[in-house]
Amino acid sequence: MTVKESILLAAEELGCGGQVRDYLENKGETGKRETEALLRCFNLVENEVALDYLPLYAEDETESETGTIAYSVLSKKAVRILGVRDEWGNKIPFRLFPEFLKTAPGKVKIVYTYTPEEKGLEDSSDFVLQVSPRLLALGMAAEYCLAGGLFEEAEVWDAKYRDALSAAYRSRPARVMRSRRWA
Length: 183
Description:
This protein has helices spanning 3-14, 17-26, 32-53, 133-147, 151-170, and strands at 56-64, 68-70, 77-86, 94-96, 100-103, 106-115. By secondary structure, the chain is α+β, with helices and mostly antiparallel strands. The strands form two sheets. Strands 1-6-3 form a three-stranded antiparallel beta sheet. Strands 2-5-4 form a three-stranded antiparallel beta sheet, with no helix packed on it. A hairpin with a 3-residue loop joins β4 and β5 (100-103). α1 (3-14) crosses α3, α1 (3-14) crosses α4 and α4 packs antiparallel against α5 (151-170). It is globular and about 55 Å long. The chain starts with a helix and ends in a 13-residue tail after the last helix.
């Protein structure tokens, strides 16, 4: 899903869809303030979802002669290191430090959760599954109203956003119940 798609959906919900669409299509001054505010809201909501509800996972392969691997070497901004494996897939112990992690020397695969980079209008969200443009739009609407001092409206949008988050968080495959046997 694209950032534009989520911004347009949120703008339609908030009643300023025409202005935002005009700005995105014509690059005029009309709707610029609303679009920039909704972009900030998008980045806040995407970050909140990734950190608090539905983490984004990444895996990087790296090599170290000493076993010391700086977090800056990882392709994304790590939040939590979940595991380290050697080149054959065996779990290996590791210790976390403020600037690096310490593990066995050699080739290793690091599995971790990360925080998404700040997005621009032409970018795409890091979420592909479970998080819909509607979920992000509801969160953006809540943040937009809160920033504008519309506290009662923000509360309504936030309730809808939390319900959508709860539904996305619960979405798991259906359980299979064993059939009954008649003796």
